[in-house]
Amino acid sequence: MSAGTITFIEAGATQVTDLGRRRGPRYGVPVNGALDQRSARIANILVGNADEDPLLEITALDVEFVPDVDVLLAVAGADGDLTVDDVTRPSNQPVSVRAGQTVALRHIQGGLRAYLAVRGSFEVPRLLGSCAPDSVLGFGGRVANAAAIAVRRSTAPIFNDHFTCELYCLDVPRRPAGFVVDVTDGPDIDDFAGTADRLFAQPYLVTPTSNHIGLRMTGPLPERVARGEVLSRGVPVGAVEVPPGDELLVLHRGRGVTAGYPVLAVVTSRSLDTLAQVRPGQRLRFRRVSAADAAARARADRVELDALRLQVRSVFTALDALSTATTGRTLS
């Protein structure tokens, strides 16, 4: 049951999504979901949601909407100018918005995608347990101008009356600077013999044909010297493929679950988030890491997010106690 709605004045290239369709691949359906998983998790953590809750993925273009109930929201991912009734508010922090105020996120920069979560999340349709869009199945898609999305919970704002600001200042992990993409060796690396290291020699240019399915890029291509045919088989998200032609292909979360091109390398989970923020026309570099190093960095990321989750839980517990003492009601 919803508490209210947010209505879009300007929707840009916005989708309602989550962390993806985990049950999808067993049925031959791509996992999809937020391309920058880390930023999506941070946005939900900042408002006290579960990591897997639906949120907005905002790609490049400006967004403007109005809630008809009080909400608490947070923006993470690429930088942008977040305003509430034309007053600048911080990204990577919870922000209270009163019913009828206009929220805008403009001039996204330093990346391609921002993620906006609302405390209590959204009430939206699901397919195989996920609201992530799937263009092949015709499920979900871009939010349209004038569309209204149901909000599950209204959250009364708590302000500091002396400084007219929220009563929190959270230590949020920042995204790594630059576009360096870590990869481990793929199952077909031996097929490329002495040319495999070309992947690390020079930057690659991301082309405009890139999307949720994969990123296409030009640069010094390794050459497959093995002559046998590659049979169609399961491929992971992050597979670096070398198809015939003049482009390198990195499969992302919208990829099909099978493919028949040789897999030279596999992008680490952390660097998949980096790929989500690279714009067409920008350049990136690949860097080889061991599977052990990739696993260690993934564990370090989880520790950072757990620490943030603990901060947020402590803050909301304190704010609920303060709200109950002063108004007789909790935050939510």
Automatic annotation (TrEMBL):
Pfam families in the cross-refs: CT_A_B (PF02626)
SUPFAM superfamilies, per database record: Cyclophilin-like
Organism: Microbacterium capsulatum
Domain Carboxyltransferase positions: 26-304
Nucleotide-binding keyword on record: yes
Organism domain of life: Bacteria
Alphabetic keyword roster: ATP-binding, Hydrolase, Nucleotide-binding
Keyword Nucleotide-binding: yes
Protein name as catalogued: Biotin-dependent carboxyltransferase family protein
